[in-house]
Specification:
The chain is an alpha/beta fold and 323 residues long. It has three domains: 136 residues, 3-Layer(aba) Sandwich (Rossmann fold); 61 residues, Helicase, Ruva Protein, domain 3 (Orthogonal Bundle); 96 residues, Zinc Finger, Delta Prime, domain 3 (Up-down Bundle). Helices cover 57% and strands 7% of the residues. It is built from 15 helices and five strands. Strand 3, helix 5 and strand 4 form a beta-alpha-beta unit. The radius of gyration is 24 Å and the shape is elongated. The chain starts with 5 loop residues before the first helix and ends with a helix. The mean pLDDT is 87.
Amino acid sequence: MSFEMWAEKYRPKTLDEIVNQKEIVERLKSFVESRNVPHCIFAGPPGTGKTTAALCLARDLYGKAYREHMMELNASDERGIDVVRETVKTFARVRSIGEVPFKIMILDEADNMTSDAQQALRRTMERYTETCRFILIANYSGKIIEPIQSRCAPFRFTYLPKTEHDEFLRRIAKSEGITLLDEGLEAIFEVCGGDMRRAINTLQAAASFGKPITAEIVYSVVGRAHPADVQKMVLTALNGNFIQAREKLREMIQKYGVAGTDIIRQIHTEIFRINIPEPWKIKLADTIGEIDFRLVQGSNEEVQLSALLARLVEAGYQMKQQT
């Protein structure tokens, strides 16, 4: 089995290889055909192919030597106002030699740039449009100042649907000679929710066990409790058995090493899956939100989670009285 990072190994190399995002791919292809690219903003949640799409666009536009015609800066690089004035400006003002008369500057995680840096960037984009086109990549486009947004063509990326997510992971598993069970595939989607980069990394981590990938293995490698265990704990509490529910909670924390905030999120999900009256789902969701806030503020995890189980026991008693 290969030990290189699969997320990089299976990253699409051209626009035709990108999964989902069909409308975006068609628009980018039209830019390649016309040999003209506007300033762009690629916005959307992580793991949906924003950086990959930018690199594929550059590869399709310039060919194999695309690295000579583009520069990529990430949030891990310093990108204050001085970097924009020096590094970015120096790159942008030099004309590209070749069929395409402009270069491409990719600014990954542009929503983390300071306001001053964005103001300096705005002027650079305006002044050097003929020699350089900018692709800004952001999780939250609202954090990018309006003058920059008005100069860019927006592209909204979305999470992959389950069918394409499953098909892509099955293809990787087949290529790597891994036995990926249906329950393992379901668990990966449950954990990653369409974030393809995270899904591939989760698959690789699960494959390192050298066993068929089951739901149990997936939940253990990502440090999350099995939904069936969480549901059992919630139902035990609603049935009035506080001590047993608390023992189940401690068992999950020891078995999976899961954090309190993660268990809270899973309990929140399970509350809407179990068969209880809707008004009680609303009340319990409000209670869970209150406990989650306390945990974020630094309260003791075990005390707060026990308090949540106690609230569930009380809710169970009151529901029985109403029926």
